[in-house]
């Protein structure tokens, strides 16, 4: 199952709206086939593993990170494929909450005489597919807040200079975060101030750039913006006048651009399961105030700008310390001369 989970991680940021699934087929103590969800969400992991295993799948054990699907979509059900291949046992880490499957895949397999066991490495599997599970269970993508700041929490000087606060190792790690997310969100202030590309600039992973999403209630995004060089989404007020045209650009109209719950539900309905929020400070604060930050990835450089610099997080208007959003450390690693601390929300 550990091998299947490693395979599943290959699909993160590249398979939405489908989950990132890994599958390993074992026969006689040896791996006969392995597969993971392919770009765009298909073929599925199980069919890829079965294709590689061929006849060796008969009588084999199957380790898969999510319950095999039971519904007919753009591909046939994976449960049916496993039955047709004659596998003996299936170990599924997590039951699929998608109502089109939700236990039906397991029921199909058991009805065909295949032994099914669930719960193996469930916590690890849920962590890998936290975004997909959240869209199914809460109707919104998992949100990661990514910040690159000085020791005193500044993301730019008073004049707006921010290139580069962190070093090349930290920036490369930041681009890896982008590659593992479906979409990346910024506010119009960041677009106007920095003209960011919001792409993944790691050699060989350029095609893993997430969908840029801009919160731009009045449609002020310049047509020449770098992020519009590829398909992008702009979230605008349904009262905003005018329009903006660019190849691949979609304008998503909402009643209230301050209603982040509505916006996240809209992104989830369009298949986004993992959302990376890169600011600026007011956008960071708005997500924190709304209780919608699930994870924080904070890069810190060994420098100080001081009080006149631009803060990583705007005002949260807290009246009491007990009302502060709280997170617990997940990891702390060195990135060259900088550090990366990841934290998970606890309250």
Largest sheet: 9 strands, mixed
Q: Strand share of the residues?
A: 25-35%
Unreliable spans = none
Beginning-to-end CA distance, first to last residue: 31 Å
Sequence of secondary-structure elements: HEEHEHEHEHHEEHEHEEEHEHEEEE
Structural class: alpha/beta
Computed CA radius of gyration, to the nearest angstrom: 22 Å
Share in helix:
25-40%
Q: Strand arrangement, largest sheet?
A: 11-10-9-8-12-6-13-16-15
How many beta-strand elements? Answer: 16
Overall outline:
elongated
The mean pLDDT is 94
Continuous helix count? 10
What can you see in these coordinates?
This protein is of the alpha/beta class and 347 residues long. Helix content is 25%, strand content 25%. The chain is built from 10 helices and 16 strands. The strands form 3 sheets. A 9-stranded mixed β-sheet has the order 11-10-9-8-12-6-13-16-15. Strands 2-1-3-4-5 form a 5-stranded mixed β-sheet. The protein has a two-stranded antiparallel sheet with strand order 7-14. A hairpin with a 2-residue loop joins strand 15 and strand 16. Helix 3 runs parallel beside helix 4. The longest helix is centred in the middle third of the chain and has 12 residues. The radius of gyration is 22 Å and the shape is elongated. 46% of the residues are buried. The model has no long low-confidence stretch (mean pLDDT 94).
């Amino acid at each position: 199952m550990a091998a299947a989970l490693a395979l599943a991680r290959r699909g993160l940021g590249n398979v939405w709206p489908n989950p990132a699934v890994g599958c390993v087929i074992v026969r006689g103590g040896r791996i006969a086939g392995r597969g993971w969800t392919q770009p765009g969400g298909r073929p599925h992991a199980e069919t890829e593993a079965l294709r590689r295993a061929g006849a060796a799948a008969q009588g084999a054990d199957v380790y898969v990170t999510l319950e095999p699907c039971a519904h007919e979509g753009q591909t046939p059900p994976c449960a049916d494929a496993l039955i047709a291949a004659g596998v003996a046992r299936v170990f599924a880490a997590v039951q699929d909450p998608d109502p089109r499957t939700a236990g039906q895949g397991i029921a199909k397999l058991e009805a065909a005489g295949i032994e099914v066991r669930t719960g193996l490495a469930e916590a690890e599997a849920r962590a890998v597919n936290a975004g997909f599970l959240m869209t199914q269970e809460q109707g919104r993508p998992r949100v990661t807040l990514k910040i690159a700041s000085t020791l005193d929490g500044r993301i730019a000087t008073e004049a707006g200079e921010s290139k580069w606060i962190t070093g090349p190792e930290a920036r490369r790690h930041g681009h890896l975060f982008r590659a593992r997310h479906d979409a990346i969100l910024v506010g119009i202030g960041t677009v106007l101030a920095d003209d960011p590309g919001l792409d993944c600039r790691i050699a060989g992973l350029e095609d893993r750039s997430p969908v840029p999403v801009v919160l731009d209630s009045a449609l002020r995004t310049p047509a020449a913006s770098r992020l519009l060089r590829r398909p992008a989404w702009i979230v605008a007020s349904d009262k905003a006048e005018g329009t903006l045209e660019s190849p691949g650009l979609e304008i998503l109209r909402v009643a209230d651009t301050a209603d982040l719950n509505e916006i996240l539900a809209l992104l989830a309905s369009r298949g986004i399961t993992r959302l990376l929020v890169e600011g600026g400070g007011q956008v960071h604060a708005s997500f924190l105030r709304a209780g919608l930050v699930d994870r924080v990835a904070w890069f810190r450089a060994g420098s100080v700008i001081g009080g006149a610099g631009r803060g990583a997080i705007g005002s949260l208007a807290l009246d009491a310390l007990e009302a502060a959003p709280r997170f617990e450390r997940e990891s702390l690693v060195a990135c060259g001369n900088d550090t990366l601390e990841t934290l998970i929300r606890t309250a």
